[in-house]
Amino acid sequence: MNQETIASMDTNLFFLVLLGIGIGIVVNVCADWLPKRLWQADEFPCHVVYRLMRWISVEASIVALVLYSHAVTAPGASLLQSHTVQQKPWLQDTFLYASCGVLLLIAVIDLEHRKVPNVLVGGTLALGIGIAALFGPQDVTVRMILGGIVGLGVFGLVAGLRQGGMGMGDVKLAGLIGGMVGYPYVFIALSIGIIAGGIGSLLLVLSRRINLNDSLAYAPFLCIGALITLWHGATILAWYSQRFI
After folding, report:
1. Per residue, what are the HEC states of the chain?
2. 62 contacts 104 by C-beta, under 8 angstroms
3. What tens digit of pLDDT does each residue of 59-73 get?
4. What pLDDT digit, counting tens, does each position of 135-150 carry?
């Protein structure tokens, strides 16, 4: 490996870390500002140590997510590489980094306020479909719309059958995730999210952090499923098809 290659790698790493820090700042500011703007919610909680720890945690998380997204897209292993914009790698990277920021923001707000902002879900979905329609192949737009419909339908049915078990915010988030990953990958994302939610709930109950009657912020688990699918959905689907189909 020559010195020019090493210098290029160092420059890319520096840029990605700065990008992650910048996205983290936006996520933290929006997590404080959006709830007050939308619901006149008080800051949660108003403790200096908590605020500092949350800012540091979000910054570290988004930097790690950006770096991992870059590591996945570099060899062409991400879901987007398989069905979207091979001719426009900048668009693929931008979509992944933006998705990391939006999903982390939704997770933080749901953890603190037990709500998922409609404006964030609807605006992100509309923007994503619009960009796909302008820059991507036609089948990508169709898959995004179909994925959104499936996500809304599946979680809407679950919410209807189990009153109080799932909020409408989670239903709308499932629609957004379906639009992000597209069809048929929406089934992978929601399945991972449900499994993660079940494991997380069990661990919290066993550790006595919550009891069986307490409500649980479900959005973070759905967001985990979405990110794993964006990174590795194509690989997971190929493995499943070879094993079971």
Report:
1. CCHHHHHHHHHHHHHHHHHHHHHHHHHHHHHHHHHHHHHCCCCCCCCHHHHHHHHHHHHHHHHHHHHHHHHHHCCCCCHHHHHCCCCCHHHHHHHHHHHHHHHHHHHHHHHHHCCCCHHHHHHHHHHHHHHHHHHCCHHHHHHHHHHHHHHHHHHHHHHHHCCCCCCHHHHHHHHHHHHHHCCCHHHHHHHHHHHHHHHHHHHHHHCCCCCCCCCCCCHHHHHHHHHHHHHHHHHHHHHHHHHHC
2. yes
3. 999 999 998 888 887
4. 777 788 899 999 999 9
- Pair 192, 225: CB distance under 8 Å: yes
Contacts of 88 (CB under 8 A, 6+ apart): 135
Span 68-97, pLDDT tens digits: 888 887 655 556 555 545 556 677 788 889
Q: How many CA atoms lie within 13 A of 130 on its CB side?
A: 6
d(CA 199, CA 16): 32
Angstrom distances, CA of residue 140 to CA of 28, 97, 134, 146? 31, 19, 11, 10
Assessment of whether the complete model's pTM goes beyond 0.85? yes
